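Risk mitigation, structural track. In case the binding assays with magnesium ion fail to produce interpretable data, a predicted complex structure has been prepared as a fallback.
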Amino acid sequence: MNEYVEVILKALWFFLPSMVGGIGATIAGGGIPIDLGKNFVDGKRFLGDGKTYNGLLGGVILAIIVGIFQTLAVHYTPVNETWHFGTGFSAVYTIMVLGFGSIFGDVLGSFIKRRLGVERGEKFPVMDQYDYVLGTLVVLVVLRWSFFYQHYIEGIAWVGLLVLLVQTPIVHRLVNIIGYQIGLKKVPW
Ligand code: CTP
Ligand code: MG
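Fallback model:
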């Protein structure tokens, strides 16, 4: 495989648990809001009714499930072990960090939206598409630097990071249109 194709595919592959975080949150979402209905000092909701404990849990759980399937896929197919998240507990930890980072970014995005007076569910370009990616990258840098450096920076790996950032709004839009069509989302963004 061409080395550029390989770093790009790996950058996307290792980000899959994070990418499905929002889907898991949307499927499992509803119920008690994370902010318990409370307001911030500006009189607006901390996060709003769109961020719930069920969504948080559903997002992290789906990320872990997908990470486990990926690990099995690498194990039972002839691709080499460089496609693994790591070995043993470090792999599980990395997958959990990816799922948590996704939801962390999503929640932080809503916090910022509320501060700017954007209502729950109201469209907010860039933030809606990138919050989970940025949240995941920040959490990865802090909690899993060696993994981040190896797969998203080192050598030509940064090309993969670039492609990841470019595809984000496109794939996000497609996934949300599908979610809207099948009745999972109230709005197609
Ligand atoms: N959801 C949830 N808990 C989360 C994330 C999402 O319950 N932590 C559910 C909510 O029902 C939410 C839906 O998934 O309405 C879609 O998620 P998202 O688009 O992120 O939320 P919005 O409703 O657009 O709210 P916000 O404006 O705060 O982003
Ligand atoms: Mg939204």
